[in-house]
Amino acid sequence: MRDEHVPAGGRLQMPRSRGAASGFLLILLGIWGALIPFVGPLFNFAFSPDREWVWTAARGWLEVLPGVATAVGGFLLLSSRNRFTAMLGAWLTVFAGAWFVVGRALAGPLGLGDVGTPIAATESGRVGLELAYFYGLGALIIFLGGIALGRLSIRSARDVRHAQRTAMTTTEPTEPVASDDVTEIRPADEEPQPRRRTLGGMFGRGDRLAHR
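User: That's the sequence. What structure does it adopt?
Assistant: Structure tokens below.
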């Protein structure tokens, strides 16, 4: 769309539904990533130490932190009508998803602790835990955050119409401006009196009779 059709400040306005679906899914994924290390041991679906509701530094840095960041970014996408705020939330989810993927590899050099090993009897079970806790979860968050960024980077005709409606509803009616022109009002006794005509003047003979 051409810029002249967009009102002042309208480029940042967008319908709330633009990031609603992605935001809702990202909130769910963030809650999953932050809570699964504490409730997973209840279902034998965990990393060691397989004890529920046990806080460790590794769980805080590698699971709770990116999970909370994903949920916050998803909430910004879900609730914001401002394009800049929504894009900030989308970028936050992308970084959080990337941390889910690479966090374990950087935990040792950064001294963040170790989340342990997957508690599973089979190789497929251990792979499932790795995907559900870190790699698959992070990849899905990055995917949804990238989709949200792509949608937010495009200003569609629907966005322009939404910005125009918002500008129309927020515009206050202007009050009439008093004019500086002054109208002179004469008193009733100063109005010019109508000129009385004589009977001769009515027939056009008054002047002729006066010169005779």
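The radius of gyration is 39 Å.
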